[in-house]
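ok so for the tutorial part 2 we go from a plain amino acid sequence to predicted structure tokens. step 1 is just haveing the sequence, like this:
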Amino acid sequence: MYVFLGSILLSILALGHTTAITIERTDANLISGSVVDGRESNEYDIGYSVFGNGVDVEGTGLWQLTAYGSANADGSGEQLNPTTDTFNARQASITFRGGHTMNYGRVDFIYSMEGQTCETVQFICLELGKGPDSSVFFEMEATPEGAVTSCVPAECIGVFVTGTESSSENLMLYEGNPSNYITFDSNAQTTEASGPVVGLNMWSMALYGSERPNGEGPQYGRQEQVLSSYHASIPLRDPGQMLTYDDVATNFDMIGLTCAQVKHMCTELSKNPQSTMDFELAGVPDETVLKACFEAPDGSCKGTSNEN
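step 2 — the prediction. this is what the tokens look like for a chain of 308 residues:
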């Protein structure tokens, strides 16, 4: 059960009698912040305020705010990697005054994605609670249960690829030649949960020869990066966009290789470690979709072995 702009009844027992405070609205607004799969340090800046009616409550250490990840917009379910290192001393001691907004300003904290992915953490949730070291003794209740929770989108920076394709129309290889000029086209289909990612040197694409059409087994003559700076910086602006790499050109070294070993040319897309933007690249359902192979047709490889 949850509210974003809800009525919260806090029962506070102090000085031997019960005082009811009704919190009518909680607001959490994302100012800045995002997460990346597995990254331990993800900075968030969230505006947070609470409005209610009732008598004043004054003291130090009154409030504690727990930030956690959730797969659900209401914060229900498991609280993923919760942290209470959110409020500073001033925020934890803000006085409640009936009919006025408790404005906490900007709540800055670090959220850890250790062991988590963009699929598991889709929202960052804030749960208001009683401070464990409050100078005022009180019991706090929420009506309805869980009404002290509000969430903002996690803004996960991830690129999820469901498939890649590569092809070449003018492939010609020569055994023993260290410089075989190759051009090919490649594309990668992303999901609606992807992006946006915009930066420089974001992508790497490996190229290698293979005996198998799926690229499994030995990888002959593998080159780790065949993309130009232009291709490596192609932006992903819209979720579900297809990343297109046209006319990729490279020289393939056939020294020590035979035509039988390069019956297929394969590509493998990855995140460039020199990317100016931090993000996670993942294959869906698994990493094998980041590989694509195209056949070296009969006659496209020549050499002393006479195998093709």
